[in-house]
Design a protein that fits this description.
The chain is an alpha+beta fold. The longest helix is centred in the first third of the chain and has 12 residues.
Amino acid sequence: MTDTELIRAAADAARHAYCPYSAFPVGAALLTRDGRVFTGVNVENASYGLTICAERNAVAAAVAAGVVEFTTIAIAADGAGAQAVPPCGACRQVLAEFAAPDLRIITASIHPVETTGAYLLKDLLPFAFSSTTLASKTKETLG
């Protein structure tokens, strides 16, 4: 799948976002190592802390299908103009749980659909919390 096709999938998904409070629809399209694409949208809630980002929805859909190896995620947001809208900190950490540090992150606007940025996960989250962090703490505790 090309970057353009992945961006289009994210932009198409964003049409289904549930964002009555922010009016800021976001769509994500997650490309798996085996070539499948899983999409997600932001789903807002009146209790703002319960809002779920598009990126985490796409990851959850992939995991629910038994897939945990990703290569690229495209994120398309409306109203961003030429400004890149990279994943929030929580989404970066969730992506780090399943994706290699070299996961490609492509940001795009929806109107018009065009790329606004490209990053690597390791550059956006250089010190991710990981199972390695937990393992060192467990060894320390158990002696």
